# Entry
Amino acid sequence: MTDLPDLGLRRKVATTLPTEHGTFQLYGYDGAGGLGHVALVMGDLDSSLGGPPLVRVHSECLTGDALGSRRCDCGEQLQAALAEIAREGRGALVYVRGHEGRGIGLLAKLHAYALQDTGVDTVDANLRLGYPADARTYEEVAQILRDLGIDRMRLMSANPTKAEHLAALGIDVVARTTLPVADRPENAFYLDTKRRRMRHDAVEALPDAWAQLLTGNVPDRAVPGTDAALVERYGPLVRAGSPLTLAQLGQSIDGFIASRTGDAEFVTGEQDRTHLHRLRALVDAVVVGAATVAADDPRLTVRAVPGPNPVRVVLDPRASAPREAHVLRQGEARTLWLVGPDATAEPTAEHVEVVRVPVSGGAGFAPADVLQALRDRGLGRVLVEGGGRVVSSFLAARVLDRLFLTTAPLLIGDGVPGIRFDGSDRLTDALAGPVRRFALGDDVCTEFDLTGRHRAES
Ligand SMILES: Nc1nc2c(ncn2[C@@H]2O[C@H](COP(=O)(O)OP(=O)(O)OP(=O)(O)O)[C@@H](O)[C@H]2O)c(=O)[nH]1
Ligand SMILES: [Zn+2]
# Structure
């Protein structure tokens, strides 16, 4: 190992850092002109025990790492590297301060971004501002690696120059592996420039998971983190094809979707809204009852995420929906207004089609008749999203494939009920799993897989 000058860099503090990938040892070092560096370590790094460990030398990128920027791939590489280390149960990530903007600093990088907004590539932008294309140095990194007992390692990086710098400082880089990143419209030019002008490897570029799901494909590999979670959560719905009947409801933990005055803003939080919009984007049609249209005047479009608007379906046997309701007036998506055979209803706008459906028994539609009317119009994938009575009636009729029931940590005490149906006398007959559960901020979404409960075809 080359003898390095002692830069006076010291490990100052040791603590732990629990992350979504597991708990790491965290070491704080001085250096980087007072900014300090951080190393995250998992497992025993001794090469003689488990071979050369997996190491990521990660250059600080405030915009990518902390703010989720899609101009670069830094944030995704950071998460992917931690996930890889956790998968092996062993390795280290050195988070290098002072490397921001390839060593030119944050504000200079932002100036370089402004130039890139005019079409200049990332290399020329640095040069035009009077900086080198890459001003990063690695002496302090080598000192930290040495402090961690790492003299041989497998480096996770697409940048051969980084490996060469570390090798010149006496670190034996026995292998270099690339991390999967998503090729997205926003980062394509940057990634391409790194490959053409900075010798970066062409990394296996994984497609944007949500864009794939929207086109009906379930990617078999996704960038760890958000993309992987999207595939896990929504992949089964895409695979299920058509027909498919889903329901979604957000309610307080004591089972109400609104207070007794009808105040429903907001029972569940922002993340549940995003989840609802994702479900809307993945189906052909969304179904709501006329009472929900009257109470909430929903738009039923996809706004929180990219994706197409579904056809909007209003269940209104007596044609009582307010004629001024958003879905009956605003044409950003088609609306099917399902009314009883004798109800008085005329289309309120070009995008509205009045559909006659038989009224069964009481004054309501049979869920199976509603689904049939939609299938007759090519709408096989359906989301029933409110209110409580409509969702409950589809549940009771055993036509749902899945129910997404989100509960908020809120006790309303009394109000508009959520899921209600004729219960059973014995708990063994109650509706139980299989379920999957996922956290949506403070709320918990429980996904009931009901495919085994369908009413037998008569
Ligand atoms: N000056 C400048 N810096 C950038 C730009 N985009 C990202 N960066 C910085 O580049 C650094 C990361 O370097 P990259 O070239 O993306 O990747 P790398 O570290 O060389 O290689 P990998 O190990 O594969 O990530 C981070 O410090 C970012 O802040 C840019 O357009 N201009
Ligand atoms: Zn970045």
Q: What stands out?
A: The radius of gyration is 28 Å. The CA atoms of residues 45 and 53 lie 6 Å apart. DSSP finds 15 helices and 20 strands in the chain. The first strand starts at residue 11 and ends at 19.
